[in-house]
Amino acid sequence: MSSWLAYLLRNKTLGNVLCTSESVKRQICVRWPLNASWRRPSCFALYELLLVHKRKLLSHLSAFFLLSRPLNGLITALSVGIGALTTDQIPAWPAILLAALSAALINGAGNAFNDLMDIEVDRINRPLRPLPSGRLSPSAARMQSLLLALAGCALAFWLSLWHGLIALVVVALLAVYSISLKNSLLWGNVLVAFVGAIAFPYGALAAGDIGRSWIPALFAFLFHLGREIVKDIEDVAGDQIRGERTLPLCWGRTQAAVLAAFVYLLLVGFTWMPFFAGLYGALYALALLPVHALVGYVLWQLYRRRAVLADDRLGRLLKVGMFLGLVAIVVGEAVFALG
After folding, report:
1. What is the pTM of this model?
2. Cα-flanking dihedrals φ and ψ of residue 136, to 5°?
3. How far is CA 191 from CA 68, 149, 221, 236, in A?
4. Closest CA to 207 of 160, 247, 243
5. How far is CA 163 from CA 103, 146, 208, 336, in A?
6. Which has the closest alpha carbon to 79: 166, 224, 204?
7. Which of 175, 210, 203 is nearest to 191 (CA)?
8. Which residues, other chains included, contact 41 with Cβ-Cβ below 8 Å and sequence gap of 6+?
9. CA neighbor of 177 nearest in space, from 234, 110, 271, 272
10. pLDDT tens readout for residues 283-304
11. Domains in the chain, start-ordered, CATH in brackets?
C-alpha cells in the first residue's frame, strides 16, 4: 500500500480537506507512515480513505435516524391520517399531509429528547441505542431534538392557529415528561397515552371537524397506557439504579402487571363498542381478531413470567398490535363510508 496519503494528511491544507476527523487521520497515518514512496499515488489507497469516510458518515446518519424512532413517527403520521378519515368532510389531503408531517416531526423531537434524558438508564436497558452506544453525542441529540420541534411547530402554525397551539402544548408536555413527570407515579404513563391519542383529533381538525376521531383516540389512549406500564416492567433494572418512582418499583411488578391487564381488558371491551353501536360492520369485527389475539398473548406472557421481563420484546410486540388496531379502525371507517 502506498503511503502518499499519510503525507497529504500531515499537510495542514490538504489534510483538512481530505479528512476532517482527527481520529481517522491518526489511524491512516499509523497505517501508512511517511517515507519516500509517497510520490507514487495509489488509487486504491484513495478509495480506502473514501470508504473510511463513507462508513463514518453512514453510521452518523443511521444514528440520527434511529434516535427519533422512525417507526413511532410513522405510526403518529398514520394516526393523523386515520383521524382525518373519521370526519364526514371531503379530505383536503395537502392539509392532512402537513398535519401528519408536523406530528411526526414533533414525535421525533420528543423521542430524541427523551433518549437524551435517559442516556444513563439506557446504558443498562438499551445499550445499543445511538446515545449509550456512543454513535451520537449528547450535543448532537440536543440539536436534533430542537430542530425537529421547531420544524414541527412551524408546519403546524402554517396549517392553522389551532394546530400550532396544539403542537406547542404537546412539545411542552413531552419536555415536562422527559425532565420530571417521567419519575412520577403513573402520571407520566397517562401523559404519554394522552399525547398518542391527540394525534387523531389533530388529523380530524385538519380535515374540517372532529367527527368520530374519539374512537381511535380512546383506543390509542388505552393501548398506549397499557404499553407504557409494560415498558416500565421491562425497564425495572435501569430504573432501579437511577432511583425512579415507576409503577413496578413502587407497587411491585405483579401489581403493575395486573393494572396493565385491567387496562387491556378495558381496551378489548371498548373495541367492540363501535360494532355493537352500528357504526362499524362485520369486517371491522374480523379485523379486530388479530389485535385481541396479540393482546391475549402479551397478557399470557406477563402471567407466565410472573411479570419478570428481561428485554423489551413485549413492548415491541405491542407496537405491532397498535398498528393492527389502526388497520381495524380503517376497515371500520371504510365500511361506515360505504354503508
Report:
1. 0.75
2. -140, 140
3. 19, 18, 9, 20
4. 160
5. 10, 19, 12, 27
6. 204
7. 175
8. 2, 4
9. 110
10. 999 999 999 999 999 889 888 8
11. 4-58 (no CATH), 71-338 (1.10.357.140)
